[in-house]
Design a protein that fits this description.
The protein has helices at residues 15-25, 50-60, 79-93, 109-118, 165-171, 179-192, 218-227; strands spanning 29-34, 65-70, 99-100, 123-124, 143-147, 152-158, 163-164, 199-200. With 228 residues, it is an alpha/beta fold. The strands form three sheets. A four-stranded mixed β-sheet has the order 3-4-6-5, with helices on one face. The chain has a two-stranded parallel ribbon with strand order 1-2. Strands 7-8 form a two-stranded parallel ribbon.
């Protein structure tokens, strides 16, 4: 309530700190913004929010940062909702997204990916585990999606990620102070095979609020461990 009334800073407005941390380390960033209407599994700001538009457009103008699309939970199986959210993103940014990541990592492999291709989204960042770290299926490098049902190689590029903040918190119960060390181990493994290390992190985990208490400073230490 204090934040809404202007009496306190929003603890979840952690975007500038991420921009600064990445700029210091020369890292590339892709932001994925939820464009879904409010629902049981979609809790973001409404796509028509002026504050959301300002944030997305500002990050999109920041060097080394790309703003892309985060389809909602229901959009994974509902082509109509996916199309609507795709249009909402284009309305905010003035151009169509070229990459996406599914909310809750939810997808129906053939249905979701074919719908993305139909909308011109040719880069998908959904491939990864929710309950564990590491590379899903053993793939660490980007590769094109092969549609098994149609027996054809598609133009959709799959970009695997190796770790997610929520995995350490909710599934592995790793103490926050141990996360950077775990990340350093993944970074060493990815370098061994000449693969990029992609991480999936949420703005809320930098806040130190609620379930993320104790995570203050973990992200910057994680980046240092991954870069060392």
């Amino acid at each position: 309530m204090k934040v809404a009334l202007g009496g306190a800073l929003d603890p979840f407005d952690t975007y500038e700190s991420v921009v600064h941390a990445h700029r210091e380390r020369g890292m590339e960033t892709t932001w994925f913004f939820l464009m879904a209407e409010f629902a049981r599994f979609d809790k973001g700001l409404p796509p028509r929010s002026p504050a959301l538009s300002t944030l997305m457009q500002g990050l999109g103008r920041t060097e080394g940062h790309a703003v892309q699309w985060h389809p909602g939970y229901a959009a994974a199986s509902d082509e109509r909702k996916m199309t609507s959210e795709h249009s909402a993103f284009a309305a905010v940014m003035g151009h169509k997204p070229t990459a996406s990541r599914q909310h809750y990592l939810r997808l129906l492999p053939s249905t979701t990916r074919r719908n993305l291709i139909g909308l011109g989204v040719l880069n998908d960042h959904t491939e990864g585990h929710a309950s564990r770290t590491g590379w899903r299926g053993g793939f660490a490098r980007t590769r094109p999606w092969y549609d098994l049902e149609r027996e054809e190689l598609t133009p959709l590029q799959l970009h695997p990620f190796a770790a997610m903040d929520a995995t350490y918190l909710r599934y592995l119960n790793v103490p926050p102070q141990d996360v950077p060390h775990r990340m350093g181990q993944l970074a060493s493994e990815s370098r061994k095979w000449g693969a990029p290390l992609r991480l999936l992190w949420h703005n809320e985990s930098l806040s130190g609020e609620g379930q993320w208490k104790g995570w203050e400073g973990v992200y910057s230490k994680t980046l240092d461990a991954a870069c060392s």
